[in-house]
Q: What sequence folds into this?
């Protein structure tokens, strides 16, 4: 079996060699350059790295990252994207957990260890014009990429996505999402966040152009609002949180942004009021709400949001499952439930991951065979009605926050490692749209005398920022003498969630 992704990108380099694949202004590269540079790097990796070993690709939103991904694929390596804004402690954990044989560092690599291909070596290698053998190209059940997500023990879990998983996702995207050839795609999600796959591969497979929106732009409203009109976007891929910010700008309309015709949302729940406002501003655009965990390859359901959908649903549906996949709703005893009954969402089909890298215990907990097919227990509650999936919250203590999936236990773990923190429990505060509005941390602090809570909060946030991603830092800290316990002696997180959401 061949790799259709590699073949299709090569086809674009031949049909449209001068098309820009990644818009970086004057430094933009073409499809022909993508093909040639990735071939040279793949040739180097073939000669110097043991095939099928993981390779970390480290950096931000850059054409060099995409070249590296394609080179890994051509040379028979699964790649692990790690964002340049990741705290050093987390980078170290991912590096150690992944057993990566090599690091392609587009940005400056912050560790003193690893077999590093830095940017100057990258440029030297990719200019040689060499060809790989193409004997080891990633295909079928080979691991295409591994994304490390938050884990309950403080250690990230590596979700392994195979070529077959990714092919299933890409086929669906090209069939069901009104995509055309040679469109301009927003590239905002970091490559270490699987939402990025929703713009990366559909763009490359249709001869499109990726338009980067860097982190600093999202963090500054004037910069964000000033930059969007210059991007000439056709396809918008993001979490609902970002579009919510953009809608604060009265100029974010179809009149001002006439080329923008396709919106795709994933990563968290799309609020009804946000979708309504977006459709009012862009009445002729296609707006898709999607759902899916990293473990099932980005997304597996979609629905086009229309006036009818808005009028018939207070809480928007997550959509209809893609044609090669089945959704099953199970009760606590593992029995299949009927339409309209709430239970755990189980995903069955070719998009389901082969499991977590080097973590058989967690793999066995979440992955299984259902009627002989690969299946994943999402931990999400939901129901199916008229073939549409509806979300009913988390069954456990994973949450979605700004599109990122977070294990609350991960943040607890890192908080308790800080000086004078005896115990900690992080809980979500929700808004009326059932969306996480704030992370609240209850802290048992080892200080016998009175202390300035504002100063300690500031100190803890600073220390925590060195350990975890910025979206994992709680906004509010509540200091208590002890944490409430359940009857079996565990911290009563549910009780605290109820307390903070009264």
A:
């Amino acid at each position: 079996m061949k790799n259709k992704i590699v073949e299709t990108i090569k086809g674009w380099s031949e049909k449209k060699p001068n098309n820009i694949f990644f818009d970086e202004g004057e430094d933009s590269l073409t499809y022909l350059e993508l093909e040639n540079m990735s071939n040279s790097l793949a040739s180097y990796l073939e000669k110097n790295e043991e095939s099928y070993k993981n390779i970390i690709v480290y950096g931000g939103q850059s054409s060099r990252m995409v070249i590296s991904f394609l080179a890994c694929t051509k040379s028979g390596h699964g790649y692990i994207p790690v964002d340049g804004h990741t705290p050093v402690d987390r980078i170290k954990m991912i590096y150690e957990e992944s057993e990566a044989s090599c690091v392609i560092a587009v940005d400056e690599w912050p560790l003193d260890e690893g077999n590093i291909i830095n940017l100057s070596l990258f440029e030297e290698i990719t200019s040689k014009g060499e060809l790989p053998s193409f004997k080891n190209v990633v295909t079928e059940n080979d691991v295409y990429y591994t994304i490390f997500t938050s884990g309950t023990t403080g250690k990230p879990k590596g979700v392994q996505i195979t070529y077959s998983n990714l092919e299933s996702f890409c086929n669906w995207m090209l069939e069901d999402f009104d995509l055309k050839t040679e469109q301009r795609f927003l590239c905002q999600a970091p490559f270490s966040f699987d939402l990025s796959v929703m713009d990366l591969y559909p763009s490359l497979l249709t001869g499109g152009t990726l338009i980067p929106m860097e982190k600093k732009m999202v963090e500054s409203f004037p910069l964000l609002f000033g930059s969007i009109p210059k991007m000439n976007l056709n396809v918008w891929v993001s979490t609902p949180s970002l579009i919510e910010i953009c809608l604060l700008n009265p100029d974010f309309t179809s009149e001002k942004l006439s080329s923008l015709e396709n919106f795709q949302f994933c990563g968290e729940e799309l609020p009804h009021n946000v979708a309504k406002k977006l459709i009012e501003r862009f009445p002729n655009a296609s707006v898709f709400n999607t759902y899916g965990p990293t473990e099932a390859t980005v997304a597996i359901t979609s629905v086009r949001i229309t006036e009818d959908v808005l009028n018939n649903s207070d809480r928007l549906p997550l959509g209809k499952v893609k044609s090669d996949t089945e959704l099953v709703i199970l009760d606590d005893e593992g029995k299949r439930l009927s339409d309209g009954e709430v239970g755990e969402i189980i995903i069955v089909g070719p998009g389901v991951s082969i499991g977590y890298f080097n973590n058989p215990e967690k793999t066995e907990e979440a992955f299984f065979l259902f009627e002989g097919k690969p299946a994943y227990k999402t931990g999400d509650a939901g129901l199916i009605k008229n073939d549409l999936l509806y979300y009913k919250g988390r069954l456990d203590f994973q949450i979605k926050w700004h599109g990122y999936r977070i294990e609350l236990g991960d943040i607890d773990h890192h908080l308790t490692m800080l000086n004078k923190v005896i115990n900690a429990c992080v809980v979500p505060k929700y808004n009326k749209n059932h969306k996480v509005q704030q992370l609240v941390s209850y802290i048992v602090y080892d200080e016998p005398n009175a202390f300035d809570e504002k100063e300690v909060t500031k100190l803890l946030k600073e220390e925590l920022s060195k350990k975890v991603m910025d979206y994992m830092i709680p906004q509010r800290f509540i200091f208590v003498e002890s944490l409430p316990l359940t009857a079996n002696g565990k911290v009563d997180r549910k009780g605290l969630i109820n307390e903070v959401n009264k």
Summary: The chain has a mean pLDDT of 93. The first helix runs from residue 4 to 15. Residues 318 and 389 are 5 Å apart (CA to CA).
